[in-house]
Amino acid sequence: MNRSFLKYCFFVCFFLPFAYAHWADLAAAEITVEEQTVAVTLTFPTGLLSQYDEDKSGRLSTNEIENHSSELEAFFAKNLELRAANSEASLKLEPGSPDSPDIGMNPGSHSTVRLVYTFSENPTNLTITYKLFIPGVSTASCLATLLQNGKTQTFVFTPENPTLTLTPAITPFWQTLKSFVLLGTEHIWTGYDHILFLLTLLMLGGGLGYLLKVVSAFTLAHSVTLSLAVFGLISLPGRLVESGIALSIAYVAAENLLRNQERAARWRWLLTFGFGLIHGLGFAGILQKMAIPRENLGLALLSFNLGVELGQLVIVALAFMVFFLLNHWRFVGKLRWAISATAFLIGLFWFVERAFVI
Fold it and tell me: What are the contacts of 207-211 at 24+ separation with CB within 8 A?
């Protein structure tokens, strides 16, 4: 076997662990707004306050919370700010109840507290600023379920979208829409396996018509399974879904390298549709973990899917333009080969890791 190819494989495999990323720093907050009080039941990554986890259980116990109540109150007052135009709030910290929000996370990694903010009078133009993100984790998010005036609404806090302003009635429709669109966009931009799959699909070249057919097949397929999974109509084990996504990358890359390109391009839209069904289940994972109230599920799903599509279009458009500009470069064929070969190795590594290791 060619020595340069072996060196190339070693280089790619050496850096594979750095290319894999999990959705991290997921939190949930149930916010109940009453006349002069706002109660927040918050489930957050214990790593933010690991110095108070004295028994190293990965979860702050009732005793640990009570023993460090003053330090914890100061921390949450600084990092979960509630401000009103007409009054100041005082904060009281309480241990979380057993009925804390279920965000599908390991109970050995998250803790729950109850934060009660008391205002001197009924707050107007209430602004909530959430800063409880682990530094350097771009995929951080907190799903907030808002209970006010007998209505329920949802909102997603992220490092790029950390502030929510409540009207006297309820958070506006557009704020919820915006937060889930941003969440969907961020999800695909940090979903390296989905990005790699999209790039691998484009390595056969082809015109705009071919590109639109392939991307449309992927969009339709993942939208179907995303919706079915979020509404609980279909469910597959996470290991099977994640390893299937990895296998889709390796298969498409292998087809780029080994199969007749004209024949592969002719049926690629159908292949893309099949694999898109699996990717849709992967997209659904984050919404399922958030346990969104059913009455808000439709808007959350629509907004999140729209964000995924916008992020996907940006990725595909940039890749298409780059290769369009490089079309007459004499080494463009070798570049496409190198990208497909890299995708094959990464996909194969991820498949083994997800199917047999994790």
Answer: 208/320, 210/265, 210/268, 211/316, 211/320
| pLDDT for residue 171 | 57
The answer to whether the beta carbons of residues 100 and 112 sit under 8 Å apart is yes
Count CB atoms within 10 A of the CB of residue 196: 23
**Per-residue pLDDT band at 22 (split at 50, 70, 90):** very low
pLDDT at 15: 41
* Per-residue tokens: 267: 């049926």
Amino acid identity for residue 16 in this structure? L
| CA 285/CA 245 separation, integer angstroms | 13
For helices 192-201 and 238-258, the axis angle rounded to 10 degrees is 30
If DSSP codes are grouped into helix, strand and coil, which group holds residue 233?
A: coil
Sheet of 37-45, strand order: 89-95, 110-119, 37-45, 26-33, 141-148, 151-157
Q: Return the minimum-mean-pLDDT range out of 2-6, 134-138, 242-246.
A: 2-6
> How much is the average pLDDT of 90-110?
65
**pLDDT at residue 247, rounded to an integer:** 95
Query: Is residue 52 within 8 Å of 75, Cβ to Cβ?
Result: no
**Regarding beta strands 89-95 and 26-33, do their DSSP bridges make them parallel or antiparallel, or are they unpaired?**
unpaired
**Shortest CA distance to 171 belongs to which of 126, 201, 108?**
126
**Distance from C-alpha of 337 to C-alpha of 326, rounded to nearest angstrom:** 14
For residue 248, name the pLDDT band (cuts at 50, 70, 90): very high
Distances in Å between the Cα of 118 and the Cα atoms of 39, 82, 112 are: 9, 10, 20
